[in-house]
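Let us practice reading a record.
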Amino acid sequence: MAKIYLYGKLRQHLPEESRRDGCIELHLPEPESLSSILTSLGLEVDQLATIFINARLLATRNSMASSLQYRQFRSSPHDWNLNVDIEPGDRVGIFGMDMPALVV
């Protein structure tokens, strides 16, 4: 099972029973691309500001991301190729354009 967390206004794309927690659990018999998962949730890339996979930064529109020293999924956090496999046990955090600044 993979857990997909949606933050901010993106929660409206979750089934009603999942909106309060902001999380949907997906039973994946085999790896599935993040792109495919987003499509099934009705999300488009231009709605997204930042994506984390297992607490590692996959992609962001935040120009300060490199200086914030997040653990990164790949070398460039500005690469929006979302054909990345999500596997059972993965946790994905997706922040919408209403929550673009992630400074911790």
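A brief commentary: The beta strands are 2-7, 23-26, 32-33, 48-53, 56-60, 85-86, 91-96.
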